[in-house]
Every structure is written in C-alpha cells, then in structure tokens.
Amino acid sequence: MIRNIQDVPVTGKRVLTRVDFNVPISASGEITDDTRIRETLPTIRSIVDRGGIAVLVSHLGRPKGMVAPAFTLKPVADHLQTLLPDHRVVFAPDCVGEHATSAVSAAQPGDIVLLENVRFHAEEEANDARFATALAAVADVFCNDAFGTAHRAHASTVGVTAHVQDVCAGLLMQKELAYLGAALREPRRPLVAVIGGSKISGKIDVIRSLMHSCDTILIGGGMMFTFLQSQGISVGSSLVEPDRLELAASLLEEARHTAVRLLLPTDTIVADRFDAQAATQVVAVTEIPDGWMGLDVGPESAAAYGEVIRTAGTVVWNGPMGVFEMPPFAAGTRQVADALAEATARGAITIVGGGDSAAAITQFGLASRVSHVSTGGGASLEFLEGKELPGVVALDRP
Ligand code: AMP
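Above: the input record for the complex with adenosine monophosphate. Below: its predicted structure, written as tokens.
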C-alpha cells in the first residue's frame, strides 16, 4: 500500500521530499519555465501548513557527480521564496553532511529547506547505501513527489526509503499515477494512443504494450518512415532506422492479428533539406521523391488522426507528429494538440506524456485544455510499457 502525504502526520516532523526541480535556467541565472516548481507547491503546502518542515531534495541537469556551479539549485531556492512568501525558504549548500544537518536543525515548523543538487555526488546515481543513509539523516518522513525520476533507482528515489520509517507519495506523484494508471487499467473507450517522435527504437516497447490495451494507435513523427519502408515503400531521404525494419514489419503484422488498429499516415510534408527554409511539398507517402525527406504528417493524415482523437474516450499522446520546432513542419502536431483539446471538452480523458509532446502542447498554449500533462517523459513511457517504476515500488509498504 502506498500512503499519501495528506494522510501522514507531519506536525513538527522533518519531511525529506524528493522533488523534480530540474528546470531550465538561463546563463544569467533566470528560471525560464517554473512549471515543475509550481506543480510541487500543493505537496510543500501540505507539509508546511500542518507545521512540518519541508526538506526538499532534487537534481538539476547533469553535473556528472561533481560540484558544478552552473547546476546549483540556489536560484530555485530564491524563486521558491517568491512563490511561498509566507514561509521561510533556506538554501543548504550541500544535500548531506554538516551543511544539510545544520540547516535542517535550525529550521522551525513551517520552514522549507532546499538542499543543494543531489547529483553533485556520484553516489546518488549509483544508489550508494551509505549516501542514502546520509540523506535519511535529515528525515523523519520521506515523501516522493518526483514522478519524472521514479523510473530511476537512485539514492534519493529508492535507497533512502530503506532508512526512513514513514514513506509516502506527494500530491503530484499521486496525480501522475492516478491518470496514467486509470488510462491503462480502466480506460474510457475507445482508448487511442498517438505515438510520434524521431525514432522507433525508444518506443518499441510502448507500442507493443499498447497494442494489447488500445483500440487504435496512430503513428507519426520520424518513426513512421521505418514502418513505411518496412512495407516496401520508398521514403527518399526520410529518417529510417535500417536495423528496425524487420521489427516494424513484425509489429504491423502482429497488429493485423489483434483487435487493435495501427494506423500510418497516408500523406506527408516533404522537404528538400532539414531546414525551416527548405522547399516543401505535400505528397502521398507512396510518392516521396528521391532526395526529399518527410518532416511532418500531411493534411489528410492529420485530419484523419484528428477525427479518431475527437471521438476517443481516452487519449494518450507521446511524441510529436513532425519537426514541430520548425514552423513549416508543426501543423500535424498542432492538429493533434487541437484534437486533444476538443476531445477533452467533449469529456474524454487526455494525457500528454512528458518530453517533446509536453513542450509542443505548451508551445501551442493548449496545456490547460487537456486532462493531464505528465511531468515525466521517460517515466511515463515506462509506465505505459507496463514496467514497474522503482521509485514507486519503493514507496509500497505492507
Ligand atoms: P523523441 O525524442 O524521440 O520523442 O523525438 C522528438 C523529436 O523528433 C523532435 O525534436 C522532432 O523534431 C523530431 N521529429 C519528429 N518528426 C520527425 C521527422 N519526420 N524527421 C526527423 N525528426 C522528426
């Protein structure tokens, strides 16, 4: 059973809370997108409003186990103070040892202590037991609110739980598990998955797993060309993974023998080079000229996909339909995002996996018009693959 933070007594207690404050910070130290920080506020408030001490631990970037000033969490502490003006936010310049213990012992109920980047220590990613014990030294309760790192068995997500009596899930973690879990276990049907992104290799397992639960799977993005070529279609200079052709063919074959509909685009926007200023044309996928590359799904496919999405009961979306970062190749992704918003308005449950699709829906200003935008790209994919997330399993106690 996984306990929830709101059911755990925290008054006067030090609640070590794993958060995901891996936010983009500009060279001048400015946080350019604070969504991840804001999303943890309900959990932090749940602790401090009940007279607990919220001791926050997070990673930021990839400092490779060394102290790297470019990856300090100090700007996040300053920003957090502006978001929670009624509470004292203290920054501890190390996440373990003297700096951490003295900052936490000086804290009063209702205070927040943000510990320095946990990845300044190589022991974090190695899930080192001694380091996990050192982290646990400042905890009466451990709360995990970092869904985005729950697929990694690190000291601050897994190791630490062995050394703290009370462990629980934060509100954001609960929300992630509720949406993704319900989509898989008891989806309102039809259940539609939209899978895109550059390569098939990172998403084979999720496609395979979704074939058993979904009614329809819509394929877009660079990976569509490996599927098409596996059917003997000539795709010009489009992105193809030659070592995945056989696998793509076998997935299509498997789909023919199951109830799932696995749909591929019928048209594509091709360009004469990988460039926003390239010459473009719309062609049928069977008519891609030599030397041209498909960089988006075409209007006919986008409309057909939109129709499937609009009539779905549940939609799970992971990966853009095209190179949405370049305006000439953003239309397919945009139409999928619009259809998700429409489906939501009609009562469907719509879930956007993290990473690029989350970036796309935010870029289009539609993030608030879908049911849930996951904060974890890799974690949400692994969850949809049916894998157990080590950070979640570690919270499960009899
Ligand atoms: P992924 O990280 O695998 O989800 O891939 C996301 C990236 O795929 C985005 O940066 C897109 O620009 C890229 N992408 C989408 N469609 C294509 C395409 N047809 N060709 C090349 N890259 C693509």
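Notes for the reader.
The radius of gyration is 23 Å.
The first strand starts at residue 14 and ends at 18.
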